[in-house]
Design brief:
493 residues; Serine Threonine Protein Phosphatase 5, Tetratricopeptide repeat; 29 helices; mainly alpha
């Protein structure tokens, strides 16, 4: 069922042009909508009696109460795939029949939102605002725009619309006020305006005293501020009001931040008792076990994740960390290289891989010494990059070489050197440095691209093709890299 709903959501996004035409006015169903509805029919086939009943329940209420009913029914629909589809199909049908009915149009916008097609929902809501700029409908529209913009990561817009409706939210009801301030708090948090975020969550508590999620969110903001005591205080308040998975998980994170790992473990376990499929929580439980050097318990948790989700990059990186800490470095390399195949920018995995390679090459490793050199080398690369941006290539080369001497397992140093050589048209030296970078970071498409282009400059097109072909085989999911392969192949013939 989950696979089907994912397909449906994708299909709806692809069919947005057709959904747009339904939104605007009654139209004859075209092939796109018909195909989409055939997919939806597999879960819920439109029933005329359901349509009539939905319409009756709307018409029997005053406009404000009808809008509240629409939202309540929409939230209830989120409980299962079938009810989501049913809600969407009915509102989709009704908006074709009565395109000028604002309550029905609001229902359609809400149904798009719970189908995760928020871009289209926002379009519908803005169209509604043009025709219905007065309350109470305008308040509902601004409220929904706040939620949809926040959920789509457009936090500036979410705040703008949330501020507009906030003074009037009480006229709609405390449930709306509570939800509005939660959205505002989330938006401010993501904008790193933490004081405003906390104030918004506190306003949610005023509207609905004893609301655990507001306390949880305040605790998360304090986590971002690294005020672990206040994070724990608010986390404890949340779970005292209600025992729920994300509440215990968030409190566990607060304890972890305070380095109180035994208490963190207790909270993660409570969360997993309530939701055994909470994989992020299981990962953090494993991390907490690692911190108290209970390595085998950590491994067991990471394995559970990989058994359920074999390609989980966080769990694979964690397994690499486990093998490093238990000094089985060859096995660490296997997991860490596999991680970087899927996410070549995973910094934690990159560092763990450098640790493993250093230990293998030197037959031992002093982690304190390695971490010290790693940090110093990183600072030098930051300094060198600033020089490169100013065109001080010769000076930056000296800094980069110092960094490489401290940590020869960091591919970025060789990449920076290659960039400087390339910019002065010393392609031979650039190719030498990029070969070193590729050896350390074989799944990095950007490095492989630069290496291939440099070899091309040297007239070594067959070697360039070989590099691109081998890298493409390692990262077959990278479609952009496949296009480069075709370009190089055509040149090599």
């Amino acid at each position: 069922m989950k696979t089907l709903i994912v397909f449906i959501i994708v299909a709806i996004v692809q069919a947005s042009i057709f959904v747009e035409s339904i939104r605007a006015k009654p139209v004859k169903q075209n092939a796109g909508i018909e195909q989409l509805n055939k997919v939806l029919d597999q879960i819920y086939k439109l029933d005329e009696n359901d349509v009539k009943q939905f319409l009756k329940e709307i018409n029997n209420r005053e406009p404000l109460e009808a809008l509240k009913y629409i939202r309540k029914r929409g939230l209830k629909a989120e409980e299962s795939t079938q009810t989501i589809i049913k809600y969407f199909r009915i509102s989709q049908e009704l908006v074709k029949r009565e395109p000028d009915n604002p309550v029905i149009k609001y229902a359609y916008a809400f149904s798009l939102a719970i189908m995760k097609n928020r871009k289209e929902a926002i379009k519908v809501l803005h169209d509604m605002m043009k025709h219905h700029p007065k309350p109470p409908l305008s308040h509902f529209i601004n409220f929904s725009l706040t939620a949809n913009y926040c959920n789509s990561g457009q936090y500036v817009e979410a705040i703008a619309y949330g501020i507009q409706v906030a003074p009037f939210s009480d006229s709609i009801g405390p449930d709306f006020t509570k939800s509005l301030y939660i959205w505002l708090g989330d938006a401010y948090d993501n904008m790193k305006e933490y004081d405003k975020s906390i104030d918004a969550y506190k306003n949610a508590i005023k509207a609905s005293p004893g609301y655990p999620y507001a306390y949880q969110n305040i605790g998360i903001v304090y986590q971002h501020l690294k005020d672990w005591d206040k994070a724990v205080e608010n986390g404890l308040k949340a779970v005292s009001l209600q025992s729920y998975p994300t509440g215990h998980f968030s409190l566990g994170n607060a304890y972890s931040g305070r380095k109180d790992y035994y208490k963190a473990i207790d909270q993660y376990k409570l969360a997993l008792e309530l939701n055994t499929g909470f994989l992020v929580c299981r990962l953090r439980l494993g991390h907490a076990y690692m911190e108290i050097e209970n390595y085998e318990s950590a491994k067991a948790e990471f394995k559970k994740i990989l058994n359920k989700k074999p390609g989980d990059v966080d769990a694979m990186a964690a397994m690499g960390w486990y093998y490093n800490m238990t000094r089985r470095y060859e096995q660490a390399v296997v997991y860490l290289e596999r991680t970087l195949r899927y996410n070549s920018d995973f910094k934690f995995a990159k560092k763990q891989l450098q640790i493993a390679r250093c230990a293998i090459e030197n037959h031992t490793i002093d982690l304190v010494d390695f971490n010290n050199k790693y940090d110093r080398a990183h600072k030098l690369l930051v300094e060198a990059y600033a020089m490169m941006q100013k065109g001080q290539l010769k000076e930056s080369n000296a800094i980069i070489k110092k960094s490489i001497k401290l940590n020869p397992y960091e591919p970025l140093g060789f990449t920076y050197l290659a960039s400087n050589y390339y910019n002065v048209q010393d392609f031979k030296s650039a190719a030498i440095e990029l070969e070193k970078a590729m050896a350390l970071d074989p799944y990095n498409a950007e490095t492989a691209t630069n290496y291939a282009c440099t070899l091309d400059k040297l007239g070594r097109i067959d070697e360039a093709y070989k590099i691109v072909r081998e890298t493409s085989a390692k990262i077959p999911e990278n479609t952009a890299f496949k296009k480069l392969l075709e370009t190089i192949r055509s040149k090599s013939k």
